[in-house]
Amino acid sequence: xxxxxxxxxxxxxxxxxxxxxxxxxxxxxxxxxxxxxxxxxxxxxxxxxxxxxxxxxxxxxxxxxxxxxxxxxxxxxxxxxxxxxxxxxxxxxxxxxxxxxxxxxxxxxxxxxxxxxxxxxxxxxxxxxxxxxxxxxxxxxxxxxxxxxxxxxxxxxxxxxxxxxxxxxxx
Length: 171
What we know:
This protein is mostly beta strands and 171 residues long. The chain has one helix at residues 2-17; strands spanning 32-40, 43-50, 55-66, 69-81, 91-97, 100-109, 114-123, 126-132, 137-150, 158-170. It has one domain: Porin.
């Protein structure tokens, strides 16, 4: 039920922005985009700033409030955008990759104990981005390998895979 409510929220935001269509190509409204991210490890805010036509700085601020888990994180990635894969009439489709890092703080309240932790790690998102031509909006799907450098307690380094969908309106 919770996932379907998130999907309805994202589709509603996309529909509300569709009335603000402007003529022009990708990123015609500006280089700064703000919106939402949905995925693992959490859902939250997503920002992207294009430093040039082929490089951007992506910042995410996910939260999660499910069951016994409560937490917040910050992600920062330097993305290198590659030549467009396709240019259908409605969008430009490009892929990207780049190094980044994250920090996470979370609490776990189990039946027998409570635990607060801070995690720190490196990530390397690889994704596909759709820049819509009539609306200053993007939609990105990314695969994010994570290397946890510091985790709960004395845990050793750990490897994980995350997945995120970002949608941002450009100003």
